[in-house]
Amino acid sequence: MTHLRRALDAHIAMDAAVEVARTRLVLAEALALGAEHRSTLPEDARALLAEAHAGFVACGALLDLSQAERVAAAWKSHDAPLSRHDDGATDQGRRRR
């Protein structure tokens, strides 16, 4: 996860608002996937998700916003998977770039 935190720092330094929010979302998911149960979801994962959500709203990034909302709904509705996809697969091949 160090590489994600470095990427986040780089995007912040570049003032790349959408990429900052996207990186926060991916980092939140990575932290959540490391948690065994929803009740043990790290607080920094929740904070990162909230920051990503706010960033998408501020940028008007509607597709990214809907992904963040799916993650939040998944975290509220069941323990696992905690990613944005109900089948538990990673989002690497599914995200648009």
Can you put this structure into words, describing what you see?
With 97 residues, the chain is mainly alpha-helical. It has one domain (2-77). Helices cover 64% and strands 0% of the residues. The chain contains 4 helices and no strands. The chain has helices at 2-13, 17-33, 43-59, 62-77. Helix 1 packs antiparallel against helix 2 (17-33) and helix 3 packs antiparallel against helix 4. The chain starts with a helix and ends in a 20-residue tail after the last helix. Mean pLDDT is 83; it is low at 86-97.
Helix content: 55-70%
How many distinct folded domains?
1
Q: Kindly estimate the percentage of residues that lie in beta strands according to DSSP.
A: under 5%
Compressed to H and E, one letter per element, the order equals HHHH
Shape: flat
Q: Major beta sheet, specifics?
A: none
Low-confidence regions: 86-97
Number of helices: 4
Summed over residues and divided by their number, the pLDDT gives a mean of: 83
Summing up helix and strand content along with how strands pair, one would put the structural category as: mainly alpha
CA radius of gyration is 13 Å
Kindly state the number of beta strands: 0
Distance between the termini: 20 Å
Topology:
Layout: H1 2-13, H2 17-33, H3 43-59, H4 62-77
Helix pairs in contact: 1-2, 2-3, 3-4
